[in-house]
Amino acid sequence: MWGELESIGRHAGSGGYRRFAWTGADTDCRAWFRAQAEARGLTLELDRNGNQWAWLGDPAAGDAVVTGSHLDSVPDGGAFDGPLGVVSSFAALDELRGRNARFTKPLAIVNFGDEEGARFGLACVGSRLTAGELTVEQAHRLTDADGITLPQAMEAAGHDPDAIGADPERLGRIGAFVELHVEQGRALDLTGDRVGVASAIWPHGRWRFDFRGEANHAGTTRLMDRRDPMLSYAETVLAARREAQLAGAVATFGKISVEPNGVNAIPSLVRGWLDSRAADQATLDTVVHGIEKAAREYADAHGIHLDVVRESFTPVVEFEHALRDEIARLLGKEDGGKSAHLNVPVLGTGAGHDAGILSGSIPTAMLFVRNPTGVSHSPAEYAAEDDCVAGVTALADVLEGLACK
Ligand SMILES: [Zn+2]
């Protein structure tokens, strides 16, 4: 399976993947998914929002156990983020058939569309629409960098954009959704474990900092006469690092725009975007408040006007405790799976996922597979074959426990 996916949407120059929603690479990934489903005698369904479902058993029976992930990528993404979950789902089903497992509930493997939001700027469009967290009107307004709207892109790929919308009936048939994903950090590498269980997705947000000073000549304006917003911005970047470190959180200024953006001009405006995430709301508030307070002091010191705008915010997602504990029990092999005490690490993550979106509607859980460098959203993203196989075994154990009891 890995070999078949390897070349789809891979950019020759960067070696990274460019599998964007409703493009040719996306269509090829979907064809691969369909072929995998057909090869296993599963019933393929394309839902109203363009998510693919491969069913074993009758979906209408209800209380279905669903696993899967996504096949799209960020620009120049790695091979594992998304596809590892889908490939592992098919491999886990093969494993269960090898064990002669008897399914007492319907099982489905899902490929959620447009998870990364690389093309239209909003992540998890497929699951958000299904969960009713994105309205049809909002979705119809999404536009890519070339001015192509989401409806136009869907239509070009043969999908009816007027069919999209919330799908409570579909979600009502699902008893549990388990998403396996490559870890996007080094927690498992540090504990020496191959597989972990997710506890929560950290709350996260984006803030825009506008530092306004005075444009002037870089050669003739005396230092003491300048109102240079770049200085306050630079000090704020350092403050963000300091505040995040103090709180055990993360804070990043990864995007900046400068006006007039001339090499021989003191800037009039420096606009920087802060992305910050922490394990809980109070910590995140403390970090962002600390950065903003420092930024205001630096701005005042340089005669700079500062505006801070929160552009987006996603509260903490706690995965359902009962399902998480059940999974930990199923994977807790050393005591024969009798107690929920964990020899499986339970970890939080700073990255968003379809499982996080769906957790508001149905019980969801996540398994993480060790990533030795923690690098993700990059061609260098990696997981060792042994660890991937351990992930498949863990997922098979979980699915057997949930769907075969
Ligand atoms: Zn992903």
From TrEMBL:
Reported cofactor(s): Zn(2+)
Residue numbers binding allantoate: 206, 264, 277
Cofactor note: Binds 2 Zn(2+) ions per subunit.
Entry superkingdom: Bacteria
CDD domains from the UniProt entry: M20_bAS
Binding residues for Zn(2+) 2: 81, 116, 377
GO molecular function term, any single one: metal ion binding
InterPro entries for this protein: Amidase_Cbmase, Bact_exopeptidase_dim_dom, Peptidase_M20
Key words of the record: Hydrolase, Metal-binding, Zinc
Binding site for Zn(2+) 1: 70, 81, 181
Coiled-coil region: none
Family annotation (SUPFAM superfamilies): Bacterial exopeptidase dimerisation domain (SSF55031), Zn-dependent exopeptidases (SSF53187)
Name of one Pfam family that matches: Peptidase_M20
Family according to the record: Belongs to the peptidase M20 family.
PANTHER family in the cross-refs: ALLANTOATE AMIDOHYDROLASE (PTHR32494:SF5), ALLANTOATE DEIMINASE-RELATED (PTHR32494)
Protein name: Allantoate amidohydrolase
Organism of origin: Streptomyces dioscori
